[in-house]
Amino acid sequence: MARLAGLMQTALIAAFLLALGGAFVPGAVGHASGVACVVLLISAPVVRVGWLTVEWARTGDHRFALLGALLLGVLATSGALAFLK
Amino acid sequence: MNPVELAVAALVTAAVGALGGLGGAILLVPILVLSGLSAREAAPLGLISVAAGSLAAAPHQLRAHLVNHRLGVSTEIIGSAAALIGALASGIIGESTLAVMLGVVALVAAFFGARRKGIRNRPDPSLTIDDLGEHAGSLSGVYRLDDGEFVQYQANRVPIGLLGMASAGLIAGLSGVSGGFIKTPTTSEVMHVPVKVAAATTTFTVGITSAVALLVYEAQGRIVVSDAALVAGAALVGGTFGVRLQALLPPPLVRKVLSAVLVIIGVLLIVRNL
After folding, report:
1. What residues in A contact B69, CB-CB < 8 Å?
2. Cβ contacts (< 8 Å) between A77 and chain B: which residues?
3. Neighbour count for residue B44 (Cβ, 10 Å)
4. Domain ranges within chain A, ordered by starting residue
5. What region does A45 belong to: left with phi over 0, alpha with psi -120 to 50, or beta?
6. For B224-273, what is each residue's pLDDT tens digit?
C-alpha cells in the first residue's frame, strides 16, 4: 500500500499543478493543461483499481482479483458507451 | 458566480465534505444552482470536485490503512453501472426536475448525516498494529481507534448494501452529487462497518463513480475545461485540508452542522423550483 500511496501522492501533486495551469494560463497551453487535469482525475481511480487487481492476483487472492477485473470491465464498457452514444 | 467565488465555494465545500465524510458535491452543486448556474452545468463541476476530493484523500487514507478496497471494489461494480445509467439519463431530464431532485437529495443527506452513529465495534486487546488493515479473501479487517486501540470488523448484509450502492450510483450519474451521503451510512449502518472505514472506503469508491459519470459528461460536451480546472485545484486543496482536519475534530459535531446547512439548501431548491 505504501507504493500505491506514493503513486497517489504524485498524481495529487500533478493534478494540482495541471489544474493551476488550466485555470490561470491563457490560450491553448492552459486548455491542454485543464484537459490533462480532468483526464488525470478520471484515470487516477481506474489506475488504483488496476493496481489492486494486479496485486490481489499476484498474492493469490483470486476471487477479489476477478472482482477487480470485472469492475475494470464495467469502467471500460462505460467509457465505450459514453463515446459511442 | 465569478471565478474567485467558484474557487472559494469548491475549496470550502470540499473541505467540509471531507470532514463530514459525505463528499463536497452535495454542498457545491446546490450552491452553484442557487447562484444561478443550471443544474445541467453544475453537475459536471460537482463530479470534478468529488474526483479531486477522492484523490486528495487517497495518500493519507492509504497510509493509515483506513480503506477496505475489497469491499469498495465489490460494491462499486453495481454502483458504477448505475452511475452510467444515471448519467446517460440525465440529458433527458428537465432543469427544474433536476433542481427539485437535488433539493430532495440534500434533505435525505441531512437526515442520514444527523442520524449516523459513532463506534459500534468494541476494541480487542489481543490485536496489534501488525493486524491493521483489510484481510485477504474476505470483506473484513482491523482498524485503529483514536486512542490507539484496535477493532476488528466484518461487512454484513452485503446484498442489502448493494441496493444502497446502486441507488447512490444512480443519483450520482443523474445529479452530479457523489452519492457518498448514501454510501457511507449504508456501509456503516446497514453493513456494520466502522464509520471511519466506511467514510474512507466511500471516498475511494466515489472517485470511481465520478470517473464513470465524467466520461459521459465529457462525451456530451458538458465539461467547461477552465471552470473544471478551477474547481479541481480548489477541491484538491480543500480535500487535503479537510481529511487532515477530520482526524482532529469530532465527526458527530461536523455532521450535525453539515446537516443543518443541507436542510437550508434543500428547502431553498425545492421551494424555488416547484
Report:
1. 52
2. 84
3. 26
4. 2-84
5. alpha
6. 999 999 999 999 999 998 888 877 776 567 667 767 877 887 887 788 77
Residue B81: all three cell numbers together: 453501472
- pLDDT tens-digit map of B104-155: 877 887 787 677 655 567 788 888 888 898 999 999 999 887 777 898 999 9
Q: Closest to B215 (Cβ–Cβ): which among A6, A8, A82?
A: A82
Residue type, position B37, single letter: L
B241 touches chain A (CB under 8 A): no
Query: From the CA of A42, how many Å to the nearest CA of chain B?
Result: 5
DSSP of B11-67, one letter per residue?
Answer: HHHHHHHHHHTS-THHHHHHHHHHTT--HHHHHHHHHHHHHHHHHHHHHHHHHTT--
Residues of B in contact with A34 (CB under 8 A): 225-226, 228-229
CA-nearest of B60, B64, B5 to B31 is B5
- A53 in Cβ contact with A72 (< 8 Å): yes
In order, the DSSP letters of A7-50 are HHHHHHHHHHHHHHHHHHS-HHHHHHHHHHHHHHHHHHHHHHHH
Would you give the DSSP letter of residue B268? H
b or e along B68-88 (b: 16 or more beta carbons within 10 Å of the residue's beta carbon)?
bbbbbbbbbbbbbbbbbbbbb
> For residue B189, what is the DSSP state?
I
Per the CB < 8 A criterion, the answer to whether B158 and B171 are in contact is no
pLDDT tens column, B151-199: 899 999 999 999 989 888 887 777 767 777 778 878 887 898 887 788 8
Is residue B208 within 8 Å of B24, Cβ to Cβ? no
Whether ipTM > 0.85 holds is: yes
The average pLDDT across A11-32 equals: 95
